[in-house]
Amino acid sequence: MTDTTAAEAPAESVPPEAAAAPAPETEPEVESEDNRTDQSVAQIIQGTGLSRNTCEQAIFRAAQSEQLQRVSQGVYRLAPPKPPSPPKPLPPSRNGHANDEWIARIEAWQVNPASWNVEEDGPPPNHPEHRIPLDVVGRFKERQAREAKAAAKQEAEDFKLLDQLLTACNGNYSRTAALADPRPIHVILNSGVPVDDIISVIKAKVDRRAYPKNQTIASWSEPWFLKAVSEQYARWVLAPRLVVKWRERIEAQHRDVSTPAASSEPAERVEPSPATQPAPEPENASTEPPPQPVANPDDGLEIDPTTEAPPAEHVRAPGEPSRESILAAFTRNRVPPQPVAPPSAPQPRPPERPVERRAESEPISDEGWEELIAGFMAGMVNWNRRRLGPEPGQPGCRAPRHILRSFRL
Q1: 233-264 confidence digits (pLDDT tens)
Q2: Which residues does the chain have with pLDDT short of 70?
Q3: Using one digit for the tens of pLDDT, what is the confidence trace for 144-164?
Q4: CA 398/CA 403 separation, integer angstroms
Q5: Residue 79: closest CA among 87, 90, 71, 89
Q6: Record: fold of 3-78
Q7: pTM for this one?
Q8: Could you tell me the CA-to-CA distances from 124 to 67, 98, 100 in Å, in that order?
Q9: At a CB cut-off of 8 Å and minimum separation 6, what does 373 contact?
């Protein structure tokens, strides 16, 4: 029996035992360097190193799966690669709705069961014969499971938060459903107020250990409680921020004022006033001095105008101001004297007002003592020793004893 005959026998009729035998772990290598060379059965056995029986079974299975092409009797070729199959289109949703539309209809049915259209969508989702696709039902259940898990986690966090707030109240709260609603607290937290600030407000405004007349809280949305939280947040957070911002702006203004920009304009030359300029001398001025006026008695000895001038008299240089020009300029620039008003009649002196004595400080009422001590214990009031005396709890305190006993002092 030749190799060709042996190769044809298993390819055409294979016994059931051979067909049912397990496939070998290694497929026969029928490719050569060019991946398209025709090979006989003997060449395939020689190249793979398999036994003849195992190689014949592998060739048969590869030919059935169209991985090998039969060229002639006992000769095979590697089949060309198959093109990838196109993706299978998604089955259309039943009843003409997409998956998102089905989920939206189910959510609307959960809120209002009457919104389900039985004629168009079939039985409602809770009916065993509903028409909703199974993949939509699975997605909706997974979504419900995630929401339920998130809700359980949020509920545990809300329970822990309410426990902290009620503990800070120290029993001074009304057991109502409104107090169990944490949504007002979430609104406050989302605005940036930390939990510790809310707890400190509760201890100062609700806890009666800080002040025996504190109000009983019945809801976290009461106006007086919200006002107290906002005032404390403004005093502790917003006010310091504004102070820092204002100080920066003020310091920037001071720096701008202390370093002014130098003026680029040149300094103007100051010209002397016409009054102080020397009078021009005539060209044919006489060498003889002009006659002098009668001297003022206050100037000293009187000079006789008929007396001859001394032989060694000082001669003025050209352009030097004369006495007459100086006196004329002084007369022009002098402010004329104002008329003096006649003295008015003396006014009678108003009667002196009696010196009012400073009223003595009014005594502090019991309610005032309670507010002062409560604010001092809460750290919101600075104790005035000059007016109120020693601090509460110290010897010599001026507060009534029954009020100190109410604060356990």
Answers
A1: 999 998 999 999 999 999 988 888 766 554 44
A2: 1-36, 87-96, 258-321, 330-348, 350-361
A3: 899 899 999 999 999 999 999
A4: 11
A5: 71
A6: Arc Repressor Mutant, subunit A (1.10.10)
A7: 0.38
A8: 52, 17, 17
A9: 392, 399, 403, 404, 407, 409
Residue type at 59 in one-letter notation: I
CA atoms of 29 and 47, how far apart (whole Å)? 7
Nearest-angstrom CA–CA distance, 133 and 218? 49
